[in-house]
Amino acid sequence: MARGATWDAALERRVGHAIGLEAKAQGSKLFRRRLRQPSSASGLGTHLGDIWEDPVILGEFGLALTQGVQNHVMACVIHFTLNSMENARFRVNVKIEEDVLHEVYLPHFRRIIEGGVTSVMSSYNSVNGEFLGQNWELLTNTLRNKWHFDGFVISDFIFRLRDAALSLKNGLDIDAPFTQQRALHLGDALVSGKLDWADVDKACLRILMKQLQWESRAEVVTPDMSVVFSKEHRDLAREVASRSMVLLKNEMVHEAPLLPLDPSQFSTVALVGRLANIANTGDKGSSQVFPPRVVTGFEGLKAALPNKEIVMNDTDSVETAREAAAQADVVICVVGYDANDEGEFVVPSLQSDPCLQSLFPPSTTVKDRETLGVMQAGSNESKLETGLEVGAGGDRTSLRLRPRDVEMIKGVSAANPKIVVVLVTAGAVVMEN
């Protein structure tokens, strides 16, 4: 999302190339690429104002990333479509007029699909009364009849449909990730005549055709594992991060703008805020990443200013932050959100919507039983074998910073006017003087 702030589609294509190269080196065949939706048709979108919400920018950046990735592996664009809230995503029905749907919420998908993406993932929500995983109007009439998409459609995980036979007839090719509703119900549907074998053959043909097409043109040589977390790719990540940052204000302090900081003008820096020294890489759900190393703000500042004294206070205490600020020449205050504030919202959804329990598959393997057991137990402290935490985050209830963050900024700035405020968030934030 931050990469949209670079306004550089060529840079995004380089990012896709690096992702595809690392994916192929590790044996992956398919990369799922999440598209940020424009603000929700229901009026409940929590990311209003993000640069990534403009459908033109979304389409161009999504296409650039797809093209870069598909130099090496297949790409899948997700979530199709109107997946614009988290907490109610398993049950919300988005009602929308046809012209608004096609002029605001679908152009970015169309751009990527017509640009040759291999696969599309359906979202959890309903649109105009039908769940996306079994929505003929969107999966067949729009994707295939109007846009001539010839790839395959894959479902989101576990809670993605309600009628197994209807989902296959209406255009969902792959049901993921477990042996689930289709395994339970398609056999009977075929016997009863509710489903025809021609529907099965159609889905199989689309899946196999794309795999065969891909294998026939894919590069023969698998990249060496040394490309993963390589210096070249770390340098690219740093370039993207620096280009993504947005300077909101640079006000005069003592008759001069505070930024850029001049190391010759200070000897002590106070680094304050609860996010100052943590590896805050975002969602701890399905978007979690596992880099071999993360450089925190504190570590980065020490590396950038090796001859300066860095006084760190990485607590939520306004009083101790004020004390540190008063003793320093310059203050850097890091505030914002982590995965507990916004992110994937699974376990609480199960607790508030018991009907979802009926959609769990019969667990046949030890790994399935462990994974599903954690989710059904509703324990946020438990982790899957992958290390993912389940149930953190959710939709934010406000577009403002945490009240404690506001107190921190006001308190520290009162103690030292030479303050740089750094915002770390995954969405829009309302800022006031």
From TrEMBL:
Q: Where is each Glycoside hydrolase family 3 C-terminal domain found?
A: 245-432
Alphabetically sorted, this entry's keywords are: Carbohydrate metabolism, Glycoprotein, Glycosidase, Hydrolase, Polysaccharide degradation
Q: Does the keyword Oxidoreductase apply?
A: no
Q: Reaction(s) catalyzed by this protein? A: Hydrolysis of terminal, non-reducing beta-D-glucosyl residues with release of beta-D-glucose
EC number(s) per entry:
3.2.1.21
Q: Which InterPro entries match?
A: Cellulose_deg_GH3 (IPR050288), GH (IPR017853), Glyco_hydro_3_C (IPR002772), Glyco_hydro_3_C_sf (IPR036881), Glyco_hydro_3_N (IPR001764), Glyco_hydro_3_N_sf (IPR036962)
Pathway the protein takes part in: Glycan metabolism; cellulose degradation
Broad EC category: hydrolase
Glycoside hydrolase family 3 N-terminal domain residues: 53-208
Q: Which family does it belong to?
A: Belongs to the glycosyl hydrolase 3 family.
Name recorded for this polypeptide = beta-glucosidase
